[in-house]
Amino acid sequence: MPRYSPSRWTGGGGDPKPPVHLEGEYRGTYRLIHEEGAGDQWRESGGVWMSFSPDGTYEVRGDKLHLPPSGSGTWEREGDDLVLDDTALHTADFDWTLILDGRFQLYGEGEGHIRLRQRDMDHNRIHELELRPLDR
């Protein structure tokens, strides 16, 4: 099982606070950032829709096939982190390490916008989502 770290990252401006209200529908961008030593990086990105329900369930759908893979499961706030537990059935035709699962650092970006970030240390990459609410 891959090791994940939420990577205490501030996004370049102070110490953002997580949003008080997470429930709702969001639209935004998913980025997979590959780190290849000596500071070299390459990125893949695509549009994403994500929903967090008050009952602690979530859904995610990527605009590009498997970037990120569609999924669903449960979510839980733990301090400044968001823990996703993907319980969806998946096919075997893609890299399952791309499934959004585990502990993410959660940042409030103002006006209800949120950023989720997870460092995948086993694969030298970062999963990052920038999301804006659809109803605000």
Sequence stretches where pLDDT stays below 50 over 5 or more residues:
1-14
Please identify the structural class as seen in this structure. mainly beta
Shape: globular
What is the tally of beta strands? 9
Give the N-terminus to C-terminus distance in angstroms.
37 Å
Largest sheet: 8 strands, antiparallel, barrel
Q: Beta fraction of the residues?
A: over 45%
User: What's the gyration radius in Å?
Assistant: 14 Å
Give helix and strand order, one letter per element, not per position: EEEEEEEEE
- Which assembly state applies to the chains in this document? single chain
User: For the largest beta sheet, what order do the strands appear in spatially?
Assistant: 2-3-4-5-6-7-8-9
Helix count, DSSP H or I runs of 4 or more residues = 0
Helix content: under 10%
The pLDDT mean sits at: 80
